[in-house]
Amino acid sequence: MSTTIVHLLRHGEVHNPDKILYGRLPHYRLSELGQEMAARVATHLHDGGHDITAVVASPLQRAQETAAPTAATYGLDIITDERLIEAENYFEGKTFGVGDGSLRHPEHWPRLINPFRPSWGEAYKEQVARMHAAVDAARERARGHEALLVSHQLPIWIARQAYEKKKLWHDPRKRECNLASLTSLTFTNDVLVAVNYSEPVADLYPGASRVAGA
Predict the structure, then answer these.
(1) Per-block average pLDDT, block size 10, for the chain (214 residues)?
(2) Distance between CA atoms of residues 9 and 184, nearest Å
(3) What do the Gene Ontology cellular component annotations say (predicted)?
(4) Where are the domains of the chain?
């Protein structure tokens, strides 16, 4: 029997001074803090003895930049997989909120009528299908070792919900998928045996106490 671990890494903090929902828009890069997060994840994996043999990323810039330090640390090329891309969202490019955001305009309200699909974007089941297919491909590529897949909060969370046989509809405020967090899937042969969540850059989150020299 072989054990393979596929880590789903959410990208680091993004430079987004206008606070819009950037979704799949191009040219959204990591902030300086996001770059630090990406570098710290690479160190965490390497110093923790993780046997990374494949680094795969969403085609979006923020995911590619998050993947780069780990790929460099392990001497690997980044493999781009379109299936890891952010979820499609009608509100992409808009501010999203009740005050000055999109929600104050009645023309957008029909997009909110069905939270179970959801009606404002890519269906949850479609996200599950593409994310699980990307995980399967990475597991085959790194069989007996570990793979790192860099993606985005919603696709990672929905993929995890499906693996854990939980409902896909959820409260977005309760997602356990922080910036630069790892959702690690352990497989024995092709059978999922464990799902673990970790935050290797937790001390970099707003309000956290910074450790000197960390």
Answers:
(1) 97 94 94 98 98 98 98 98 91 59 50 58 93 98 98 97 91 91 97 98 80 32
(2) 8
(3) cytoplasm
(4) 3-87+123-204
Question: d(Cα 32, Cα 70) in Å, to the nearest integer?
Answer: 17
Which CATH number applies to 3-87+123-204? 3.40.50.1240
Whole-angstrom distance, CA of residue 105 vs CA of residue 101: 8
Query: What's the CA gap between 132 and 117, in Å, rounded?
Result: 18
Residue 173, amino acid: R
Burial of 175 (0-12, 13-18, 19+ CB in 10 A): middle
pTM: 0.88
CA distance 44 to 41: 5
